[in-house]
Amino acid sequence: MADLLGGKGANLAEMTRLGLPVPPGFTITTEACRSYLSTGREPATLREEIGDHLAALERRMGRRLGRGADPLLVSVRSGARFSMPGMMETVLDVGLSDTSVRALAGQAGDDRFAWDSYRRLIQMFGRTVLGIDGSHFDAELEAARREEGVEADASLPAVRLRALVEEFKRITRVHGGRDFPQDPREQLTLAVDAVFDSWNTDRARRYRRQEHIPDDLGTAVSVCAMVFGNLGPDSGTGVAFTRDPATGRTGVYGDYLRNAQGEDVVAGYRNTVPLAELERIDPGSHRRLTEIMATLERHYLDLCDIEFTIERGTLWMLQTRVGKRTAAAAFRIAADLAEQEVIDDDEALRRVDGSQLAQLMFPHFDPAHRGEPVARGVPASPGAAVGAAVFDSARAAARAARGERVVLVRRETNPDDLDGMLAAEGVLTSRGGKTSHAAVVARGMGRTCVCGAEGIVVDADARRATVPGGGVIEEGDVLSVDGTDGSVHLGEVPVVPSTVVEYFENGGTPTGADPTTGEDPDDGRDDALVRAVDRLMRHADRRRVLGVRANADTGRDARRAARFGAAGVGLCRTEHMFLGERRRLVERLVLAVTDREREEVLAELLPLQRADFTELLAAMDGMPVTVRLLDPPLHEFLPDITELSVRVARAGDEGDDSRDHRLLRAVRRLHEQNPMLGLRGVRLGLVVPGLFAMQVRAVAEAAADRRAAGGDPRPEIMVPLVAAARELEIVREEAERVLAEVAARRGSVPTVPVGTMIELPRAALTAGEIAGAADFFSFGTNDLTQTVWGFSRDDVEGSFFAGYLERGVFPVSPFETIDAAGVGTLVRTAARTGRATSPDLGLGVCGEHGGDPASVRFFHEAGLDYVSCSPFRVPVARLEAGRAAV
Ligand code: ADP
Ligand code: MG
Ligand code: MG
């Protein structure tokens, strides 16, 4: 019932049902909160209902809230459907007043404890309910410690705590505008409203935006009878995990703090001891706790984390939930539980995801050498970056140009920082979350990024920053930034390659246990993790119906893709084969005036292209290789117009027919305002006679050569940027003529399917017609996104995107995850109408989305045959395709 009771409330109820020792209480639903937040008032019957449930609780406990010789105290706790750790408020010790504090002291036989609890209540109540700045209270506490000459609050004597209570009441009056309420019922209702309100604090909103948690769910409020971990050395409080949430290793794991209340452990400002110590301190409670943890795992069938408190030797459970974990732990735990047949492999597959796998594939810092971070921020773009700290972009670019590795450190970034970000190994900011400019752009460029490291104070003018604890980072100091967990370290932390990538490079053969000893070699590799990944990858491959191919332009990339499990090349971008040395040939092609000149150049290009394709077909023998005919605007191959103009002007009018002159005329002729929407793709093929024919011939001859060498080549020809069926028909006729001619000459040539990219809205809308001339479609979702939204990826990510994300125009960049409502609708429509024309039309996707977890699921659901992505993303796509099918 987590929707209604929040995760915390639902799990408290569940633990109670399991017969575990949970302090009694009740939960106010998220429905009440939603009503309160929308009307600004408590629902009409809420107060009465709270009264009834409180009365029941009082009867059950045989005590009354804040009254009598043994007063009942309660905690008022937030808890939403999705865990938002530390984002909302909780008020403890509600029910204490000037009278009940004395009763509590008498009951507990401990003055110190009672006054300590009371000062905690006034402090928490003041901050949470009355919105008083916590530093007022903190300053007084600090002064008290100083005057008493003690380090810890726990060492303050009762008289001092009593004086603090008076001081805190004064702060409440001065800064909260009212007296601390002495009526326990009033404390309770005010606390409940404050917890409702805490749903909408800035930090809670920011957190939800980052985690994509809807804003309208509201929080539940759990009211629980207080139990006390601060009743002396036989009391205490702790947090624990049923397995190690960092590595996934089996065995309980946790921290315990003697003589403390819950908040103290979570806040981490007092010294905790490992759970194993509890076994020595209180063996009975330790045993009970271990049993309960086993019960919880058996019940939830997963890693659980818990909060517990021991009150004078009695153990109480205060919270549990299926715990958060690192990517490595997620794989390890899922595979272990499947191995132990606690869950089946389908369920194991559901418990991991592609972005976790992607994380495991980045190189990472050597855990043995990383020590404590100096700061932490939001892990915004994964990776491990090491470099010299630089505080402005121009200097970052300059230092990088000298071959230095740099980390760009900014308060926040803006479009002027693009050069610096591009030059840097990593980006670190002190402001902003996962949708900040720095985060969006860094992810787009594949740069490591940690943002919102709030403890760091950046002074760009002074070229330095300070870190929490007072350390200073000067320009040039080496930083190590971990984009996977958000930690920032001073100095160079050694980087180790990913064991998981090594496994994929081995073609998916797990390394590991020594066959004689059965032990994993102690070589820094996480073999257990690799075995877990292997198990889940195999299962994903068994389940998935979506094929996975790779985008590869070279034999090297294709071979790697094959090792990573790609079943072919879904996109070979031939334009990449025209760069470097061959640029000159393209220049000549553009300059060619006569047919003869042009044919000469094409004849020179032919053997080069043939060799490219031969290598690619060899690397993917027996698998499809989709060759896209030349796509980009021709002028991309030509010299820069300004440079060329200068050169020509310098040369004066000597030889009007110089090469530069002719080149300049051609460059001018081909210059476009919007090259992205200009002469490219199929348009180019129609304008430059013989170009596409040469490419098709190269493909056909390469296939013939491969056959002659005993291979099994399966090339496919793909025509880019088609908008109208007729464009494709023209190219197809020409291609078929060439294919037939080569077949006649060479005898053994495989059938070469001819298909098209669907990457323009018009193509998607007339897909039924286009399918008449196509053997397959491949959705070019990058261009389709650009043309459907009408913005260019190269231009927008640095400018208004961060603002759009921030303001919720889209939850995630449409270049990262397919925009299902817009672009996705065109994909579905084209797939449907295309197949209506031609039932065995092949359907694939090439483009960045092919390796994006959420998009892969969409393509699976849209009924496509395969996705194609960069070789490195192939395992991610395989895993997600499997997940989409279970
Ligand atoms: P959060 O969601 O921030 O963890 P909680 O509602 O769990 O907030 O409460 C904060 C701390 O107070 C936790 O450590 C919790 O265990 C402790 N706590 C909450 N309710 C009680 C209670 N009834 N008795 C003792 N400690 C409590
Ligand atoms: Mg908690
Ligand atoms: Mg394109």
UniProtKB/TrEMBL annotation:
<dbReference type="InterPro" id="IPR002192">
    <property type="entry name" value="PPDK_AMP/ATP-bd"/>
</dbReference>
<feature type="domain" description="PEP-utilising enzyme mobile">
    <location>
        <begin position="404"/>
        <end position="486"/>
    </location>
</feature>
<dbReference type="InterPro" id="IPR010121">
    <property type="entry name" value="Pyruvate_phosphate_dikinase"/>
</dbReference>
<dbReference type="InterPro" id="IPR036637">
    <property type="entry name" value="Phosphohistidine_dom_sf"/>
</dbReference>
<dbReference type="InterPro" id="IPR008279">
    <property type="entry name" value="PEP-util_enz_mobile_dom"/>
</dbReference>
<dbReference type="InterPro" id="IPR018274">
    <property type="entry name" value="PEP_util_AS"/>
</dbReference>
<feature type="domain" description="PEP-utilising enzyme C-terminal">
    <location>
        <begin position="539"/>
        <end position="882"/>
    </location>
</feature>
<keyword id="KW-0418">Kinase</keyword>
<dbReference type="InterPro" id="IPR015813">
    <property type="entry name" value="Pyrv/PenolPyrv_kinase-like_dom"/>
</dbReference>
<dbReference type="InterPro" id="IPR000121">
    <property type="entry name" value="PEP_util_C"/>
</dbReference>
<keyword id="KW-0460">Magnesium</keyword>
<keyword id="KW-0479">Metal-binding</keyword>
<dbReference type="Pfam" id="PF02896">
    <property type="entry name" value="PEP-utilizers_C"/>
</dbReference>
<protein>
    <recommendedName>
        <fullName>Pyruvate, phosphate dikinase</fullName>
        <ecNumber>2.7.9.1</ecNumber>
    </recommendedName>
</protein>
<comment type="similarity">
    <text>Belongs to the PEP-utilizing enzyme family.</text>
</comment>
<keyword id="KW-0067">ATP-binding</keyword>
<feature type="domain" description="Pyruvate phosphate dikinase AMP/ATP-binding">
    <location>
        <begin position="287"/>
        <end position="333"/>
    </location>
</feature>
<dbReference type="Pfam" id="PF01326">
    <property type="entry name" value="PPDK_N"/>
</dbReference>
<dbReference type="GO" id="GO:0050242">
    <property type="term" value="F:pyruvate, phosphate dikinase activity"/>
</dbReference>
<keyword id="KW-0808">Transferase</keyword>
<dbReference type="InterPro" id="IPR013815">
    <property type="entry name" value="ATP_grasp_subdomain_1"/>
</dbReference>
<dbReference type="Pfam" id="PF00391">
    <property type="entry name" value="PEP-utilizers"/>
</dbReference>
<feature type="domain" description="Pyruvate phosphate dikinase AMP/ATP-binding">
    <location>
        <begin position="44"/>
        <end position="271"/>
    </location>
</feature>
<keyword id="KW-0547">Nucleotide-binding</keyword>
<keyword id="KW-0670">Pyruvate</keyword>
<dbReference type="InterPro" id="IPR040442">
    <property type="entry name" value="Pyrv_kinase-like_dom_sf"/>
</dbReference>
